[in-house]
């Protein structure tokens, strides 16, 4: 996938600031510091479009990046960062929930976990929540360059078991080496294609009713 044009289009600090639903959206969620912004940069082939930091809690707004006038990548603030006040965590919890639950144009959520660790409580809650609301989700285990190849299968199994997901719902990724880039792009494009087809079918049905 070769991306030509990307631009940060909208930065929202509250639900009121969300842009209108237009293009299909792919959202990136996960614990603070897991590598959401890095994944966005590496998928788009840009070094520092989305701001990253070794200090957790870098992304504090919802950011919409427009990709080739075709889709949006939506970078969400990470959860589970202890230094953020309870009040702010609560506020953000609600904003993120509203986004994930109500967003018509949301086609796929990429839930990121660190390949080195078993998913935590926050990850499990997020996964259950997404499943409950029927939001299509792909789990991406990040930082795969930080473990040996021989450990990949073992770590994948732990992640799958803790989150209760099947084999095809998990991919490994490294923003350092870009390993996994083609597979993740393929999933994103497949999902967008499927949603276009579903919309066309729905339109057909509507037309046949009115014919
Ligand atoms: P918040 O915005 O704070 O929620 O964090 P984030 O999930 O956006 O994480 P970010 O992309 O800022 O990355 C956090 C740190 O992990 C940075 O120091 C990155 O360089 C590093 N990092 C991210 N992905 C990878 C990876 O695949 N491999 C390695 N080795 N480091 C990574
Ligand atoms: Mg970030």
Write the layout of secondary structure elements.
Layout: E1 6-12, E2 25-30, H1 36-44, E3 62-67, E4 71-75, H2 86-102, E5 106-114, H3 121-132, E6 137-142, H4 152-163, E7 170-172, H5 181-210
Parallel strand pairs: 2-4, 2-5, 5-6, 6-7
Antiparallel strand pairs: 1-3, 3-4
Bound molecules: guanosine-5'-triphosphate (GTP) and magnesium ion.
Magnesium ion binds next to α1.
Could you describe the 3D structure shown?
The termini are far apart. The chain is built from five helices and seven strands; from the N terminus they run ββαββαβαβαβα. By secondary structure, the protein is an alpha/beta fold. Strand 5, helix 3 and strand 6 (137-142) form a beta-alpha-beta unit. It binds guanosine-5'-triphosphate and magnesium ion (MG). Guanosine-5'-triphosphate (GTP) is lined by residues 30, 32-38, 52-54, 56-59, 77-78, 142-143, 145-146, 174-176. Magnesium ion (MG) binds next to helix 1.
Which ions and ligands are bound to the chains? guanosine-5'-triphosphate, magnesium ion
* Biggest pleated-sheet summary: 7 strands, mixed
Instruction: Give the SSE string.
Output: EEHEEHEHEHEH
Question: Percent of residues in beta strands?
Answer: 15-25%
Which strands sit side by side, in order, in the main sheet? 1-3-4-2-5-6-7
Q: How would you describe this structure in keywords?
A:
211 residues, alpha/beta, seven-stranded mixed sheet, globular, binds guanosine-5'-triphosphate, binds magnesium ion
């Amino acid at each position: 996938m070769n991306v030509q044009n990307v631009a940060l289009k909208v930065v929202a600090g509250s639900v009121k600031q969300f842009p209108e639903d237009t293009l299909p959206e792919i959202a990136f969620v996960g614990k603070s510091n897991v590598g959401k912004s890095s994944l966005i940069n590496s998928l788009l082939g840009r070094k520092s479009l989305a701001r990253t930091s070794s200090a957790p809690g870098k992304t504090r707004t919802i950011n919409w990046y427009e990709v080739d006038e075709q889709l949006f990548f939506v970078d969400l603030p990470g959860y589970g960062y202890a230094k953020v006040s309870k009040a702010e965590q609560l506020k953000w919890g609600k904003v993120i929930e509203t986004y994930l639950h109500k967003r018509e144009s949301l086609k796929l959520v990429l839930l990121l976990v660190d390949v080195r660790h078993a998913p935590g409580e926050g990850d499990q809650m997020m996964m259950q929540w997404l499943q409950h609301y029927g939001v299509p989700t792909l789990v991406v285990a990040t930082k795969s360059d930080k473990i040996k190849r021989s450990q990949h299968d073992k770590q994948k199994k732990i992640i799958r078991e803790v989150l209760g997901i099947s084999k095809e719902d998990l991919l490994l990724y490294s923003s350092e080496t870009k390993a996994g880039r083609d597979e993740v792009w393929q999933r994103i494009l497949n999902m967008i294609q499927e949603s276009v087809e579903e919309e066309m079918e729905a339109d057909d049905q509507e037309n046949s009713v009115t014919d």
